[in-house]
Amino acid sequence: MAAAAAEGAAATALRAVLGRAAKAAERSGRAAEAVRVVAVGKTKPVSMVRELYDAGHRCFGENYVQEFVTKAPQLPEDIRWHFIGHLQSNKVKSLLAAVPNLHMVEGVDNVKIANHLDRAVSSLGRDPLKVLVQVNTSGEESKSGIDPSRCVELAKHVKLACPHLIFSGLMTIGMKDYSSTPENFKALVNCKLEVCKAIDMPAEQFELSMGMSGDFEQALQVASSMAGSEDLSGLTASLGELHVESSALKDSEISHPGNAFDDDAIADDDVWDDVSDSPGHGSTLDREWAHRQNQFHKMGYRDGIAEGQKDIAQEGFNVGFGQSVHVGYKWGLVRGITSALASLPDNLKEKMFPNVQCRGQLQDLNNSVQEISAEDALQMFHESILRSSHSSEEPDATLKRATDSSRLQSLSKDLVILLHECPDVKVSEELTGDS
User: Fold this and answer.
1) Measuring CA to CA, how many Å separate 183 from each of 173, 222, 387?
2) Residue partners of 56: CB distance under 8 A and separation at least 6
3) Cβ–Cβ under 8 Å, residues 171 and 219
4) Minimal CA–CA distance to 61: which of 71, 18, 51?
5) Which runs of E-coded beta strand occur in 29-127?
6) 164, 231, 314, 423: most buried by Cβ count inside 10 Å?
7) Is the pLDDT at 240 greater than 70, yes or no?
8) d(Cα 141, Cα 259) in Å, to the nearest integer?
9) What is the model's pLDDT at position 25?
10) What number is the average pLDDT over the span 138-155?
11) Strands, E, within 340-398: which ranges?
């Protein structure tokens, strides 16, 4: 009975939003078909999305990659999926591979993510993918999106330098204070006018994604009054998070099954516990060193956690996660320590490394570390783990893995040698141990 009540409530909520959208479109001088309602189901169960699908809806959105790639394969292939919001570059390929019916990415906010998407679409042999550039019209630091002054530049890059992407328009997420959202929407419409002029794009082909269940009528009104009714094609109104006021529905909600590890939950202890607190070690150098440790020590945990969850298997997760955390943590130490030392002021570097040759070696090591991309680092983790897990396989394969994973060993060894040249630093066993 509770499930039936929840399903009925979700479908009722959808019909209510569609009705409001149709009336808002009519008031702005457009047909209801000009407004696309994207039902965003983050943290909601597959059964709820399926209910709305069975009610005839086909346009759905998600905000979290891990939830998305788990949920989408369980649902019909004719759904037109939208990914909405900030997308991390290291999750681009897994998203595109897992969701072949991904219709649009609403959240391209920098050149790097545009390039990653373009390459991933090409390598997977997909048809060109529609994208919207996300603009931070509210100026809130907590929100993703490019500054309005730079949206033309990014739109040009997508249009001209990303042949496997289809630049389709702009999106924004207004402030939660709905009294402020009209200004956010006006800013996005102004950006649209500038982009259309800069890339010579017909206004009727340009899509605007702005407004959720609490404010999309305002979005339609603003767009209509500023741009004229002929420019409203493709305006998107999101159903928000499919919240429905129903006690039965709350019982059926699920929590976000994404990364169970919060960065803030990771202990803030120093990487090494052997930094002395005695008065003799209270120098500027020691304080700077401790500060740098606190800045970089979480990097390895993050890398390890990400790698541990990358190829999750139900029985093998604990083993794989443990191995990858170790390798990722070691890479975090190498990269973090090297970067921290290289960025020290010259007078501190001279104090730590009196030998000019050592300072030169530090700079060379830092250059080598910085040249390793995130993709290269993941490959390094992968090969290091396989090397330790398949030591009994054929000699040729073992040799290849040893060669591929020796890069981390070499960088770690070079760093340890350098640190031994610094009399004020005690080298941790976590650096000197095997990967």
Assistant:
1) 12, 9, 56
2) none
3) no
4) 71
5) 35-40, 59-62, 80-84, 102-108
6) 231
7) no
8) 22
9) 82
10) 90
11) none
Contact 99, 72 (CB under 8 A): yes
**Region of 218 on the Ramachandran plot (φ > 0 left; ψ -120 to 50 alpha; else beta):** alpha
How high is the pLDDT of residue 156?
97
Residue type at 228?
G
Tokens coding 151? 């949206």
pLDDT of 128 higher than 70: yes
CATH of domain 2-252: 3.20.20.10
Residue type, 406: S
> Residue 133: helix, strand or coil by DSSP?
strand
Q: Strand 129-134 and strand 102-108: pairing?
A: parallel
Select, from the ranges 32-41, 244-253, 418-427, the one with the highest average predicted confidence (pLDDT). Answer: 32-41
For residues 69 and 94, give the distance between their C-alpha atoms in angstroms, rounded to a whole number: 8
Token couple for 264:
């803030």
DSSP 203: G
- Nearest Cα to 173, choosing from 226, 224, 135? 135
- Whether the per-residue pLDDT at 108 is higher than 90: the answer is yes
125-161: b (≥16 Cβ within 10 Å) or e: eeeebbbbbbbbbbeeeebbbbebeebbebbebbbee
Per-residue tokens: 257: 């099954």
pLDDT at 3: 45
Helices 356-370 and 395-420 sit at what angle, rounded to 10 degrees? Answer: 140
The residue that leads in pLDDT, 303 or 15, is 15
User: Which DSSP string do the residues of 391-404 spell out, in sequence order?
Assistant: TTS-HHHHHHHHHH
> Mean of the pLDDT values across residues 340-364?
80
CB atoms within 10 A of CB 111: 15
d(CA 141, CA 17): 30
Give 344's DSSP letter: S
Please report the sign of the dihedral spanned by the C-alpha atoms of residue 257, residue 109, residue 40, residue 138. Answer: positive
The residue extents of the domains of the chain are 2-252, 263-432
DSSP letters, 236-287, are EEE-TT-----HHHHHH-----S----GGGS----S-S----SGGG-SHHHH
Strand partners, 225: none
Instruction: Burial-class residue 301 by CB neighbours within 10 Å (0-12, 13-18, 19+).
Output: middle
- What is the token pair recorded at 390? 């398949």
Q: Which of 133, 154, 128 is nearest to 144 (CA)?
A: 133
Give the chain's mean pLDDT: 72
